[in-house]
Amino acid sequence: MRTPNAVARDYYGILGVSREASDDEIKRAYRKLARQFHPDVNPDPEAQEKFKDINAAYEVLSDDRKRQIVDLGGDPLAPGGGGAGPGGPGGAGPFVGFQDIMDAFFGGAAGGARGPRPRTRPGADAILRLELDLNETAFGVEAPITVDTAVLCTTCSGAGTAAGTHLATCEACGGRGEVQSVQRTFLGQVVSARPCTVCQGYGTTIPHPCPTCAGDGRVRTRRSLTVKIPAGVEDGMRIRLAQQGEVGPGGGTAGDLYVEIHERPHDVYSRKGDDLHCRVTVPMTAAALGTRLTIKTLDSEETVDVKPGTQPGSTLRLRARGVPHLRGTGRGDLYVHLDVRTPTKLDADQERMLREFAKTRGEEVAELTKQGGFFSRMRDAFNGHA
Q: What topology does CATH give the domain 269-377?
């Protein structure tokens, strides 16, 4: 026959403190009683039993989890999880699942007994893509942008309540934001906590929501801003605008807005860091005789000399004509890569003059169809014949 469980011990009464006592008050009460009933000081057998009760009371009330069980009517030190439970004294509460046990020991789905979650929370960051030309990223620009984010509701100023009304304490959880219960399992007596389904864990309800934001404290809107792009930014960089992102629930502090730079391809220049590169085609005769080129840079015109005898693939360097450095002074360089163009079609007079020019330089020009000509000598060169 089942015997009823013993009544849970009054641990607060043993230490002589109230149920609202702070941790420091409990510690002081324990030290005072321990000095009075310690076996080395008081050899009375009843004092020894009293000292055991004092230690047990301090063990329970100095542990937040065990103290919570006491506050809910249980006894964390009762054998087999004895004490008051969901089924009442002497009754067996329903068996709980493994997840309930894990929640009791490691915190429930809502994070355990941590109180109601706040309605006002920080907002999320936002990101916006901004396309710019090379001149704009190189020298900076003030660019207008349009963002679509949540902003503070001006009707309720973030409170979420209709005019003249206020938040109400949740009657289901008493403002705690969670509902707790003491249950007995094969591991002993445990406490499980679940978010309150009535208030969604907030501990308060909104009897009369704001008609503009429906209780969220924020509304979505489209805004126009101007972002200052510094000179020298590169493709993929982000500009941070503090507190220009999403306003948080309940009118919480807005997150940041990040403007991500995307540089459009330029029709002349390619960019590598702060250096610029371009390709210029010069005729074969200009490369041989030398010439002067006018290069239009991002912000000026520069005249450069192509020396006589310039070879295909040569590069001219114009110092400090590239992109300004983002951090610091100075600019990158501009590299002009020369492509020497060889004529593809020659008339009879042009071909005759070129052959005569080749003869004056001692350069034999072989006809491709002549036996023992160019290809024969090329074969002999590869085979090591003189």
A: HSP40/DNAj peptide-binding domain (2.60.260)
CATH class of 11-72: mainly alpha
Per-domain residue ranges of the chain: 11-72, 269-377
Output the average pLDDT for the chain. 84
Task: State the virtual CA torsion across 145, 149, 154, 158 in degrees, nearest 10.
Answer: -140
DSSP-assigned letter for residue 102: H
pLDDT tens, residue by residue, 36-84: 887 777 778 888 888 888 988 998 898 888 888 888 777 888 764 434 4
Please say whether the beta carbons of 189 and 182 come within 8 A.
yes
Q: How confident is the model at residue 366 (pLDDT cuts 50, 70, 90)?
A: low
**pLDDT score recorded for residue 66:** 85
Q: Nearest-5° angle of CA 5, CA 22, CA 86?
A: 25
Nearest to 285 by CA among 315, 308, 301, 313: 308
> DSSP of 205-263, one letter per residue?
E-SSB-TTTTTSSEEEEEEEEEEEEPTT--TT-EEEETT-SPPBGGGBPP--EEEEEEE
- Pair 253, 272: CB distance under 8 Å: no
Q: What is the pLDDT of residues 154-192, one digit of tens each?
A: 999 999 999 999 999 999 999 999 988 777 766 666 777
| Nearest residue to 208 via CA among 274, 260, 164 | 164
Spatial separation of the C-alpha atoms in residues 290 and 277, rounded to whole Å: 21
Does the annotation list 278 as a binding residue?
no
Q: Count CA atoms closer than 13 A to 357's CA, side-chain side.
A: 8
Residues 6+ apart with CB under 8 A from 152: 158, 217, 218, 247, 251
Average pLDDT for residues 321-348, to the nearest whole number?
A: 94
Closest of 180, 179, 177 to residue 202, by C-alpha = 177
Q: How much is the average pLDDT of 237-257?
A: 95
**Cβ proximity of 8 and 70 under 8 Å:** yes
Q: Measure the CA–CA gap between 368 and 314, rounded to whole angstroms.
A: 29
C-beta of residue 209 within 8 angstroms of C-beta of residue 215 = yes
